[in-house]
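Aim 2 progress update. The chain analyzed this quarter is reproduced below.
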Amino acid sequence: MEQDRVVNVKEFKVHATKYVHSKNEIVVTKYGKPVALLSPITAKSPEALLLGIGELLREAGISKSEAKASLGKIRKRLYGPPGSGARRR
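Predicted structure tokens:
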């Protein structure tokens, strides 16, 4: 990850406007651990978005099995059980 894309909470608070107007994703950290992701709103493919999230999870030390389990929980929450075709909001 590029150095300018990771900032601590104090730095983010001081320069929030700069980061909000940035075209880059910004990871905000607290005590060295990621706590927030500021991402510009753009038209991206689902694959590109998931790839970016996956890179952040890996950098945060989240294992493949933890990421997969979390993705399954989120999928169920958003779309219901497999095969239901239901979409929750």
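The chain has four helices and three strands. The chain has a mean pLDDT of 84. These observations will guide the mutagenesis experiments scheduled for the next reporting period.
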